Amino acid sequence: MAYSDLREWIAALDKAGELQRIRAEVDPVLEIAEITDRVSKGAAKKYGRAGGPALLFENVKGANGVPVLINQFGSERRMQMALGVDRLDEIAERIRQLLNMKSPEGFLEKLKMLPMLADMGKFFPKTVATGSCKEVIKKKDFSLLDFPILQCWPQDGGRFITLPCVITRDPKTGKRNVGMYRMQIYDATTAGMHWQRQKVAAEHFRERLRGAQAPSPADESTKKRAGVDIMARSGGGSMLAEGTRPSGTMEVAVAIGTDPALTFSAIVPAPPEIEEFIIAGFLRQESVELVKCETVDLEVPASAEIVLEGYVKLDELRTEGPFGDHTGFYSLEDEYPVFHVTCITHRKNPIYATTIVGKPPMEDAWMGKAVERIFLPLMKLTLPEIVDVNLPVEGIFHNLMIVSIRKSYPGHARKVMNGIWALGQAMFTKCIVVVDEDVNVQDIGDVVLKVCNHIDPERDIQFTLGPVDSLDHASRLPNFGSKMGIDATRKWPTEGFTRPWPDEIRMDEKTKSLVDQKWKDLGIE
To answer: Which among 148, 295, 488, 498 could disulfide-bond with 343, CB atoms 3.0 to 4.6 Å apart, if both were Cys?
Structure first.
């Protein structure tokens, strides 16, 4: 089922008993975060399920009546609801069917493919004349501070927008990207744009710089400290119709409060050639409707609750952070581009959607597990020997990946490690553990047992250097450090292991069946 907008999604959560409305007054500074943290970690045990309910705060201090939705994705069930499936693997199966599609042979086979091709046509976004996101249009006298933007943790540098769909356009191809990058509020009309150097929007920023004038030494030094790798500075960005736009800028639009499939699409590690609007259409099985912005040449979701339009200057950086991040630690302050708001549009009586990250498990843990299940077929497309993967919540997505494989030749596990480090965002994986196909990677107890028994540390652990996540505070340099792979597969004689490899202890099936039949008579339970 595709939800047309955030409000239909909230109604579905309410009907399913997955939403808790909170009418007591709460403060967006720290208090909402503390309440949500307790709920997401299961302190509210009366709800009887991991993650607690989605929360709708209806009386937020200083928010002018704007409610706050948080923890909307905070359980496996809600992730399934958000994507309209009973199991997340259903989406993986749909992806698998697309990947296995073969060219039809003969007229009858072509006819059979017509319905599937028609369905694929529904994935692509369509632009409409207007939408509910334009019920209120403010080109002046607007303020970011009119919305209940949270400060989540005591040492945060301020309030942050944490669940935005940030829309940019590739200056070379014209393709749009939808990414999720936190935004620190500086004042009524400016915010930090935290796109890390490996993100697609950061590449769009660099592309704007490449075709422009060389920077001064001072500017170049500033940009390098920010990890932006300035190659050139723009001398003339695109201009607004009114001619009021500063030169050397890049247009950006931010949608807040979109339908759940689109919000989720903003975090998926898709190839940059595929627009997230198409991914959302695939997940929804229905196209995303877009409308043109008022002051920038971009399109935004027609049904979004709030839309921020504006630009970043190519020669302007500002200190952003600290920020209590999903690693469980504060990411330190650094220099990032500044987003200048030129227009705010929103629905009447808008709903502000947000999230909180910190020590797991939290809402983003369930989103990360959904990514794990849905994109397994894409990993298998490059590495077909992979059986399953597990990104443990405590591993913070990019710190630990456990992989089971069908081992076919000596050194196969190491080939898989290097293959994973070559897969897009998977290059940031700090530790990869490879086990045999009979190990259940979702059972951490089984994994620990097998890994600790199967490895000779000096022989089976390898290290490599390369790019690491910008949030890795332990790396030797920002964005560059070491990674570790552990080969916990059974070792073969062709790998130099000549000792006998013992069998795992297992009871025979005959005895197990006999005890099954006697179990009730034993009176143990």
So the answer is: 295
Q: How many residues does the chain have?
A: 525
Distance, in Å, from the CA atom of 362 to the CA atom of 512, rounded to the nearest integer, reads 40
The domain locations on the chain are 122-353, 383-495
**pLDDT value at 432 more than 60:** yes
Whole-number Å distance between alpha carbons of 6 and 120: 24
**Token pair 């690693």: residue:** 327
Structure tokens at 228: 């932006």
**Catalytic residue numbers?**
325
Task: Give which of 228, 182, 184 is closest to 209, Cα–Cα.
Answer: 228
**Does the structure show a pLDDT above 60 at 328?**
yes
The total of other beta-carbon atoms located within 10 Å of residue 262's CB is: 26
Q: Is the pLDDT of residue 456 over 80?
A: yes
CATH for 383-495 is 3.40.1670.10
pTM for the model: 0.85
Neighbours of 367 (CB within 10 A): 21
Name the residue type at position 30.
Answer: L
Identify the residue whose tokens are 């119709």.
241
User: Using an 8 Å Cβ cutoff, are 61 and 28 in contact?
Assistant: yes
- The CB-side HSE value for 21 (13 A sphere, CA atoms) comes to 9
**Amino acid code (one letter) for 133:** C
Q: Which helix (H) or strand (E) holds 256?
A: strand 249-256
Question: Tokens 């905070």 identify what position?
Answer: 74
Residue 108 scores a pLDDT above 90: no
Contacting residues for 70 by C-beta, under 8 A, at least 6 apart = 32, 36, 54, 55, 57, 353, 354, 355, 356, 363
CA gap 34, 40 in Å, rounded:
10
pLDDT of 170 over the 60 cut:
yes
Residue type at 83?
L
- 444 in helix, strand or coil? helix
Q: Is 392 exposed, middle or buried (0-12, 13-18, 19+ CB in 10 A)?
A: buried
Encoded tokens for 464: 């490599």
Residue 96 pLDDT? 75
The number of helix segments (H) and strand segments (E) in the chain equals: 15, 23
Find how far residue 502's CA is from the centre of its chain. 42
Tokens of residue 413, six digits: 């596990």
Q: Residue 359 in contact with residue 328, Cβ under 8 Å?
A: yes
Burial class (CB in 10 A: 0-12, 13-18, 19+), 41: middle
Of 133, 130, 129, 211, the residue nearest 170 (C-alpha)? 211
Look up the CATH architecture of domain 122-353.
Answer: Roll (2.30)
Q: How far apart are CA 352 and CA 256, in angstroms?
A: 7
Token pair for 324? 């209590």
